[in-house]
Amino acid sequence: MHILVTRPETEASRTTRKLQAMGHQVTIAPLLSITFDQPMIATSGVQALILTSRNAVHALAAHPQKTALKTLPVLAVGKSTAAAASEAGFTVALQGTGGGAELAMRIIELIKPDAGTLLHLCGEVVAFDLEPALKLAGFTVTNAVVYRSKKTDTLPAGIAALLHNGALDAVLIMSPRTAAAWRDVVAAAGLHQEANRLVHLCLSSGVADALAPLEPAVVRIAVKPSEEEMLALAARLSSSSADTT
């Protein structure tokens, strides 16, 4: 199967290697570009960092307070983010299994609110806002924006040609923001019908909802919002293709 990976460049190559190892042909077309901020971060009274994206880990690579931040335990949204944090030298104290809502529940269950503030290092747009859910449980949560994403305005010419020629089988989409970008660029390119026939592999129902105006013929949603479950969708795509040949 020929899969289009729409992740930002910081993550696309890693996902591509995994898909290729499964036997897929992969083309990368980042629909979001990521830039990193280096704000001064208040750490006094902070008991732990919340990380809900590998991009937050990448943002800390050159942050002037990285050494101080590395002394704080990390509460990670899932396996992939936890692995990136560990590789960067952080200590992961809690690892969710996918999604901000599930992480909030685990934090409420396992972390004490009176031990200090929780510092969420995040982008300017988050899929799930942890702060309201945690505040209801007595936590103090502060957000520090350490990266930003910008949607592309046009579909790369090479991708437009692949769509036009029917050379793609599926597209992998990891966020509602990316889904909106995909929806908009294919419409602007006049390739709505060509995009519609692809199997859309979606991280969550929120991603699928953002695609609704495109009316894709086939939408597959991961059981949990994680890279591992997205790869499982791709594996099942391979199996169903083999069954029809």
What do you see in this structure?
The chain has 2 domains: 2-31 and 152-243, Rossmann fold, CATH 3.40.50; 35-149, 3-Layer(aba) Sandwich (Rossmann fold). Helix content is 41%, strand content 23%. It has 11 helices and 11 strands. The chain has helices spanning 9-21, 54-60, 66-69, 79-87, 100-110, 130-136, 157-164, 176-188, 192-196, 205-211, 227-243, and strands spanning 2-5, 25-28, 32-36, 46-51, 74-76, 92-95, 117-123, 141-151, 170-173, 199-202, 218-221. The strands form 2 sheets. A 6-stranded mixed β-sheet has the order 3-8-7-4-5-6. The chain has a 5-stranded parallel β-sheet with strand order 2-1-9-10-11. α1 links the parallel β1 (2-5) and β2. α8 (176-188) packs parallel to α10. It is elongated. The mean pLDDT is 93.
Report helical residue fraction. Answer: 40-55%
User: What is the terminal separation in angstroms?
Assistant: 12 Å
**Major sheet summary line:** 6 strands, mixed
Task: Report the top-level CATH class of the largest domain.
Answer: Alpha Beta
Overall tally of structural domains: 2
Reconstruct the topology from this structure.
Blueprint: E1 2-5, H1 9-21, E2 25-28, E3 32-36, E4 46-51, H2 54-60, H3 66-69, E5 74-76, H4 79-87, E6 92-95, H5 100-110, E7 117-123, H6 130-136, E8 141-151, H7 157-164, E9 170-173, H8 176-188, H9 192-196, E10 199-202, H10 205-211, E11 218-221, H11 227-243
Parallel strand pairs: 1-2, 1-9, 4-5, 4-7, 5-6, 7-8, 9-10, 10-11
Antiparallel strand pairs: 3-8
